Amino acid sequence: MSEENFDGLKVMVIDDSKTIRRTAETLLQKAGCTVITATDGFDALAKIADTNPNIIFVDIMMPRLDGYQTCALIKNNSAFKSTPVIMLSSKDGLFDKAKGRIVGSDEYLTKPFSKEELLGAIRQHVQLKA
């Protein structure tokens, strides 16, 4: 199986947990992605316009602006509504998944996620350069 080209792919990871941000960042950087991290929704919204990420992973449970609100704000912005948003949650609940769909998220990953799950989500939602 050939190694896909994730080089230059900009991935944003929004999570209030430093551990999760660092884990995701390490896994994604090893795959060649450029990773932009944000500690919460407000931090993320400020960075999205500047960095224009190809895909966004957002934790649901965050202070100030939660993942659902953050996702809804991203999807309501015409410039970013086609950007895939993947929800991250430590709960694997149907209600959470349904709520994620309602606000426009493209997929739902349960923490702790594996490298394969992260890269699989990117593979599924982002057009990769061959």
Query: How can the largest sheet be summarized?
Result: 5 strands, parallel
**Content-based structural category:** alpha/beta
Write down the secondary-structure element order.
EHEHEHEHEH
Strand order in space, largest sheet: 2-1-3-4-5
Helicity level: 40-55%
Assign the CATH class.
Alpha Beta
Proportion of β residues?
Answer: 15-25%
Number of strand segments: 5
When the domains are counted, the total is: 1
Write down the overall geometry: globular
- State the helix count: 5
The CA-CA distance between the termini, in Å, is 13 Å
In angstroms, what is the radius of gyration? 13 Å
Output the CATH homologous superfamily: Response regulator
The CATH architecture can be given as 3-Layer(aba) Sandwich
For this structure, the CATH topology is: Rossmann fold
Low-confidence stretches: none
Short description:
The protein has 130 residues and is an alpha/beta fold. It has helices at residues 18-30, 41-51, 67-75, 94-102, 115-125, and strands at residues 10-14, 34-38, 55-59, 85-89, 107-110. The chain has five helices and five strands; from the N terminus they run E-H-E-H-E-H-E-H-E-H.
